[in-house]
Design brief:
The chain contains three helices and nine strands; from the N terminus they run αβαββββββββα. It has 221 residues and is of the alpha+beta class. It has a single domain (36-220), classed as Catalase core domain (Catalase HpII,  Chain A, domain 1, Beta Barrel), CATH 2.40.180.10. An eight-stranded antiparallel barrel has the order 1-2-3-4-5-7-8-9. Helix 1 (4-30) packs parallel to helix 3 (201-220). The termini are far apart.
């Protein structure tokens, strides 16, 4: 039986998703580009060296050690001039065992128990931590992912995960290659999910509506 809190969460997610969808459509009209948000970015080849997890979270790509090639796109959300702080985005694409790929999208946030759910503007892409903002659903419960800049290494990030509001545990180091490209595929975390990472119903409602608007904007470009 659906609970009152469940109905409330779904209602809020529907409302939030509709708002984000409208925002994407409006931005798409005001800024006729394939990406209304994060309009310009730089694409890098990357290598992810995964050390694995001593306490598995039920996501093979996180739990198991190994080396993975990846694509990473770094961008500024609103496209403000570089001299001004902006919310930065990191889109990560990794291959999956079925010859497909999975997309993970992160934005600059804090790392605290509450600030990990708050967007933070930054002057540079390597000056602020990134997180998924919305937790994934896994067999152990809610799981957040983060990319932490390595001090003194502008193209190196530690990848970490945290259960809900718990402590962050590093499971990989990601290095961006030296030959960036301005070409970029369309990243979609709703359609391209990493095995073991799922969305809660409310998060699916929130994300699907917003990305549907983004897809329409790309189709109209």
């Amino acid at each position: 039986m659906e609970t009152r809190s469940g109905r409330l969460s779904q209602g809020l997610a529907d409302a939030g998703g509709r708002g984000l969808s409208v925002a994407f459509n409006v931005l798409g009209r005001l800024r006729p580009a394939a990406k209304p948000l994060h309009p310009r970015g730089t694409l890098y080849d990357a290598v992810v060296e995964r050390r694995g997890m001593s306490e598995p979270v039920g996501v093979p790509w996180i739990d198991e050690a190994g080396s993975t090639s990846a694509l990473v796109r770094l961008s500024r959300a609103t496209g403000l001039p570089p001299a001004l702080p902006d919310v930065h985005g990191m889109a990560l694409r990794v291959p999956t065992d079925d010859a497909g790929h999975a997309d993970i999208l992160m934005a600059t946030t804090g790392l605290g128990r509450l600030t990990r759910f708050v967007l933070f503007p930054a002057a540079r892409a390597d000056h602020q931590a990134y997180s998924t903002l919305i937790p994934y659903s896994t067999r152990i419960g809610p799981l957040n992912l983060a990319a932490l800049p390595v001090q003194g290494e502008p193209r190196m990030f530690d990848l970490a995960c945290a259960r809900g509001r718990g402590r962050w545990t590093t499971f990989a180091r990601m290095t961006l290659e030296d030959s960036p490209s301005t070409d970029s595929p369309s990243f979609d975390p709703v359609l391209n999910r990493l095995p073991g990472l799922n969305y809660y119903d409310w998060a699916t409602r929130l994300r699907e509506r917003s990305y549907r608007g983004a897809r329409r904007s790309r189709d109209q470009d």
